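Q: What structure does this chain adopt?
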Amino acid sequence: MLYQLHEWQHAAMAPMRLVAEAQASLLNLPYLPVNFTPAARGLAAGLEVFERVTRRYAKPKFGFETTLVGGKKRAVSEDVVLRLPFCQLKHFKREGTEGRQDPKLLIVAPLSGHYATLLRGTAEAMLPNHEVYITDWRDARQVPLREGEFGLDDYIDYVIQFLHHLGPGTHVMGVCQPSVPVLAAVALMNQARDRNAPASMTLMGGPIDTRLSPTVPNTLAQEHSIEWFEHSVVNRVPVNYPGFMRRVYPGFIQLSGFMSMNLDRHVGAHVRLFHHLIQGDGDSAKAHKAFYDEYLSVMDLPADYYLETVERVFQKHLLPLHRFPWRGQIVDTNAIDRTALFTIEGELDDISGIGQTQAAHTICGRIPNAKREHYLQPGVGHYGVFNGRRWREEIAPRVTAFIAKHTKR
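A:
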């Protein structure tokens, strides 16, 4: 019922959004002298902010056009190389690089409310030296019921299937939430002596063991039962979507949780946008819009996957306790002996606390010391681990070096 109420509210606001957009456009016309008065500029800024905070944001685009490869500019195109019901595997093809034999890198994006484009900066930094592939997850409300359910075991299956598609010698990177299913998939592949087991695994800001340095989301998961989560946040998709009647964790609820953690900062950002628009500070306004176009674009998660992740990862801590199940068997993380492991954390991470990702080294006891590394990046929070200047200048070069070290030529 909550989802339907949300849809009704959005529909009820539509006429006001259209009027605000039209009036803001009129007040921004350069050939009307009245538009340069303080009153007109203030009204136009207020209308634009209103329209932006009430609109629904579409799935963003990666938007890669070129990258530098060996010092030369190369065109980049997006190819979908494998389609599955809940995800497509996307390849960022660099034109004219067929003979380079750069390492294949599978970036497993979070299925946690935002689209894979949240990792645009992650992929961009890896493009010059790697053949980059990324998991482009589908919005669950767009997946018809006939496609079946999708749980945590299915997520692990998808990772394994993608690694099989890419073949031997691939490197895999799990950013945030995927660290757990990626580690489980790699363990299963090593356990089965699968020739397609990745050469290396990089886990960044992930909840491997949330008992260590618990954060606000970790505490929330511990304070409520799995029944509470099911009754409080799981809804069925309304009639106007292909996934009608599918049980989901709606993206708008997840977004509300994200924003409530730093509400003052988000309110302040929109107040600053209002002032930038009045002052005609186009660059600052553009930067704000670019960030929030991405941040406010959210997707629904399959309910089974969401609830199983909460229970297995955040409540019962089954992976670090060596009791993590998959298809009726226990995942043996100590079976990993061929895949190199690199863990990365941020000093100021308020989503995955210090030590939570590094815990992967503790539960993967058979990886030789020569094939494991850990890095703690000073001065960055959760998103700074995989996006921004520190990622590009200090973290990404370390990842590139680690992958090169464990690539067979």
